[in-house]
Amino acid sequence: MSHTIISVKNLVKNYGKFNAVKGISFDVQEGEIFGLLGPNGAGKSTTLEIIETLRDKTSGEVIVDGIDLDKEPNEIKKIIGVQLQTSGYYPGLNLLQLIELFCGLYNRNVDPMELLEMVNLKDKAKAKVKELSGGQKQRFSVATTLINEPRIIFLDEPTTGLDPQARRSLWELVKNIRQRGTTVIITTHYMDEAEYLCDRVAIIDSGNIIALDTPDKLIDNLIATGFERPKEMKLANLEDVFIKLTGHSLREE
Ligand code: ADP
Ligand code: MG
After folding, report:
1. At 114, is the pLDDT very low, low, confident or very high (cuts 50, 70, 90)?
2. Which of 30, 67, 80, 242 has the highest local Cβ count within 10 Å?
3. Closest residue by Cα to residue 185 from 35, 51, 7
4. Res. 253 pLDDT band, cuts 50 70 90
């Protein structure tokens, strides 16, 4: 049986006179990977940050696991994981020390080495954030969302700017996190990422949700309208060639 863990109703966000989010509604089920898919400026980060309690909304209703954002935002904070800005604040600390610091702040007893192992960064425990590659930084950032053992984590464009190996490695990490029962909300403007990773996606454009379904169903709906690709698709694409030639292994040094 599925359980609605996030319910958003008629959410509106205005920045001054600019209407960035125009009354969107959607539900997220516990245990799913839910994608907000849209071009730059669509309103993805705004929506995400409102649910994360990091930004005020103009109007609408947000309920997270039965908790009303308007009434008990601090209760919501306790059950969600947000990506922390680790590089700016504590440049002198290494990864292990940063995780220990956040464990203290959250009053949690997670094993920092276990967490680093989960995101494949055990070798880098003594490194500083600035010494990490782009993919490693993102994996560390994902690790920081897990410190308070949240029910839901929020990832805002976690693979933007990563090379194909690092991107695939992050996808597997996100799948592992969901495997443990954690709900994941992720924003992306990469269609292949949404198709591979998300159980359901809301396509958002100029502050409106213009479609919401499983990737499969969205594609089937399009085909049902008589749509055909102009050219027969090959069985592989250039990214497959690249991965075949350069391998799946991460190149981070
Ligand atoms: P996305 O994450 O989909 O790229 P955003 O939620 O960041 O979109 O932004 C949605 C729209 O709101 C954009 O047009 C952006 O310029 C505008 N916007 C975002 N933050 C602010 C802000 N603090 N002040 C004014 N406009 C903003
Ligand atoms: Mg954004």
Report:
1. very high
2. 80
3. 35
4. low
Q: Best of 18, 21, 52, 55 to mutate for ligand 1, by most ligand atoms within 8 A of CB?
A: 18
Using CA atoms, how far apart are residues 136 and 142, in angstroms rounded to an integer? 10
Q: Token pair for residue 110? A: 């997670």
Strand ranges (E), the chain: 4-15, 18-29, 33-37, 59-64, 67-68, 80-81, 152-156, 183-188, 200-205, 208-213
Whether 188 is in the pocket of ligand 1, judged by its Cβ within 6 Å, is no
pTM > 0.90: yes
Whether 44 lines ligand 1, by a CB cut-off of 6 Å, is yes
Tokens standing for 107?
């009053």
The response to whether residue 242 sits with its C-beta less than 6 Å from ligand 1 reads no
Q: Six-digit token pair at 153?
A: 């984590």
Reported confidence tier of residue 212, pLDDT bands at 50, 70, 90? very high
175 C-alpha to ligand 1 centroid (Å): 28
Residue 187: CA count within 13 A, CB half-sphere: 20
